[in-house]
Specification:
about 250 residues; alpha/beta; L-arginine/glycine Amidinotransferase, Chain A; 3-stranded mixed sheet; 15 strands; about 25% helix; binds citrulline
Length: about 250
Amino acid sequence: MRWIALTRTPGNSYVKAISSTSARIDPDEARRQHDGYCRALRNIGLEVITLPPDEGFPDGCFVEDAVVVRNGKALLTRSGAPSRQGEGETLRPTLEAHGLHIVQVEPPGTLDGGDVLWVENVAYVGLGDRTNQEGIAQLAAKLGVEAHAVPVPPGMLHLKSGAAYLGNGRLYAVAALAPLAAEIGLDWVPVPEGEEPTADALVFGAKAIIPAGYPKAATLLKELGLQVQPVNLSEFAKADGGPTCLSVIWPQ
Ligand code: CIR
């Protein structure tokens, strides 16, 4: 089976991305880091499609938020951040070209893909600024999946900013999400203190992409049997993004 990873290069407008930091973004460096990220995706066995920048959407490189793919369907989302609404539509031709059946979140629903944490076939979906109950209900109905709402802890952008499913019943998560692991019967693997950005690890089978610069997390994940690829994503961290946000992955 082929696995596709859809990505989009950041444009010059990426400097205006939504950010909780005041750090100045270098778009050329962001593009270099994006290239490195795409190489890492290929290294872990994915077939990478990279769309050109869309200057109309400063956050458009964070494709994960704009579409959720499952069961041969692509759900175009509707972000709780107004400047991001419409990003999914820009991906439609590529998704259709890959045979995916398009459905979409309708108002008053809101949903960001970064809130959708899959644990096997069940979606745990962050309820917060970007995603509401109606969005979660539409996700369940339109993708035909079981979905449960999980409040996003204060100060966290998306649910997946704080947790990654490692497979085999293990949830790699920050302390604020330890109760979630217990509630859904998973073993909690704590993210090392000070290395919280690695909670957004992109896990594909036994391989993981994490942001570079976090040695404790890299060692821990290796000890758990994962093959770890650290990638420099500092220009994306400046806009609150990490490894999972930059791609949408599905089996073809
Ligand atoms: C935003 O605030 O929407 C973007 N600057 C960052 C999105 C990161 N996406 C993700 O965690 N899935």
